[in-house]
Design brief:
Aspartate Aminotransferase, domain 2; Aspartate Aminotransferase, domain 1; 2 domains
Amino acid sequence: MDLIDLRSDTVTRPTPGMRRAMAEAEVGDDVYGEDPTVNRLQDTVAALLGQEAALFVPTGTMANQIAMGAQLSPGDEVVCDQGCHAVNYEGGALAALWGAQIRGLPGRRGLLDPAQVEEAIRPANDHHPRSRLVEIENTHNRGGGTVYPIETVAAIAKVAHRRGLRLHLDGARLWNACAKSGLAPSAYAAHADSVSVCLSKGLGAPAGSLVAGDRSLVADARRLRKRLGGGMRQAGVLAAAGLYALENHRERLAEDHENARRLAAALAELPALQVEVDAVETNLVFAEVRREGWDAARAAAALREHGVLAGEADSRRLRFVTHLDVPAAAITAAIDRIAAALRS
């Protein structure tokens, strides 16, 4: 029995067309700035985001960290949702690399309110850390793939800039936010001083993220990329996959969203799970395990035995992520297998 892997949209594999693009990529040494395919990818993403420049990096964590590191000094404070990726899934990098501390706020399904941000910004006082940066995540992973309303992004940016702070947009799944909202990536990015986007989640590339902003910020990010060992040589092989993904896989993200809604509706019918179907906006589905004596680990193990892989969001909740490698027919099979696993 083939496994249906719904742990993450990072498990996608390059499609045949993407592999051909990688094999045929024109390459050079990107540390010297001489890889034409990397340069084309950077120019393409900068244009999509309406920014002056962009920088190709190996991972989303590096993209977030060098974007924020270029705007922080030791002792500065970052205002963000307490469940954001940069706080929970990046190895404590904000503290370890940049000496910054976090002012984590309880967002609504991961989304901050402008008044909440205003209240959290410290007054100028030698006793306080300096509030320097606001960070938002769109879509928000732990919030359930929630999409920031553009009006909220604009209002948060207005608060931050009026108070002398900068705004970083963690757009690892910004492509999903755009597929849901119908807005262009540049509409969200227009309000941010730095933006990170990922190619290896819903778009299906094997690796790679980008940092975008003005030329000065990207130059600083390039220096920090080198410091962290992120300078790659003939990286056009990977950049070609990213270009192929941008050109061929963005429109199909709506299919993942539809598959997620169908999955959520079916899981909500199972007595062993509780799913807030209306909260499923994009390609993430969270399900609380309600079966007596079971926790998320036991439920995930039962699903694996029936050929479905799910993530453990926490001790009580499973996370299912729809993606390029799980078409509608596989969702139907997954629903049947999950039902059988939770009955056994």
